[in-house]
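chain below, 382 aa
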Amino acid sequence: MTPALGWQCRIKSFCRGSGQWEDLRLHIEYLQFYVDEAMVWRQWFVQRFGYQSLGSLTDADHHSELLCWGRVRVLLTAPLNSLSAAAAYLKRHPPGIVDVAFRVEGLAAWLERFRRLGGRLCRPLQTWQRQGACLRWCQIRGWGSLCHTLIERHGTTPPVPNWPQIDVPSPSSMIIDHAVLNVPAGELPQAARWYETMLGFQSQQRFVITTPRSGLASVVLSHPQGSAQFPINEPTSANSQIQEFLNHNRGAGIQHVAIETPDIVRTVAQLRRQGVKFLEVPSTYYEQLQQRPGFRPEQADWDAIAQQQILVDWLPDIPEALLLQTFTEPIFREPTCFFELIERCPYRQNQRLCKTQGFGEGNFQALFEAIERQQAQRGSLQ
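prediction:
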């Protein structure tokens, strides 16, 4: 696909990060939302996405609902009084993701180093133990209002901290692929450096994307010893989709979370039937797709892909390494948080079974244009 006139995407690949975290493995464990009505949003996630309810929990300050979709776990928390942490957050921000929790190994040693580096704890190290099983966790302050609960598990433990031991449904292959943080202009280098220094992420790629009307810069962070991926964006124009998010979110925050599925066509079709709305992709995108080097008519069901308006990318030298993705519309009243569905197709290279990597770099133009169309409808793009 040839970029439209005036559209630019500059990509730089590199690997930079602190060498002191070789023994730390990091994986995204669950997401916590602060919302106004936890039970209302529980119904929304169940009816729209097909999440399963794992129960509820109420204390003096909050009511929480725990849900799962395959191996994706979501904790929805609402305030019960004006002095609660959720109430304080919702006074500053609209509903959204407040905690991206990570599963780690060697939590105690990691915490000691984190403190030496000047890291800030929100909640101290705590331990749950039962008959050979052990759950340890703490919570740290991330960038902006974002927090990260760090969890270490041994044996059969509760699904999230401070939750009773319950039977969790057998997990399917749905998993959290990555979470994307938006930060104000000028904060990208500092935010990336913080996650490199404090959590051992490494910078893998840098993107600079511009259209005639907007732009953004992005650094892709991934963890060398774990599966966690954590891109960070900043706006490069006043009309940028990133700036629109920051304006409505009233500061930095998680813009979207990608859910990996083994069959995106089937998943998206089901979600559409359940009322989930996705960004629209024009039919011309699929006409241009056939002109890209490496396009193979026999490789996929292109009619089904086009019908579900799914974006497709591949490496020119490895066309069988397909990456398919699409994006929901924002789920809340304000244009802030949304979800991505992504399928990373397997392929063979040098007799090895590999999994497609990347973030759909060849789709940046189509994605940017789709989001700009929504911005124009909202009147935030001039």
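The CA atoms of residues 6 and 212 lie 6 Å apart. The longest strand covers residues 8-17.
thats it, cya
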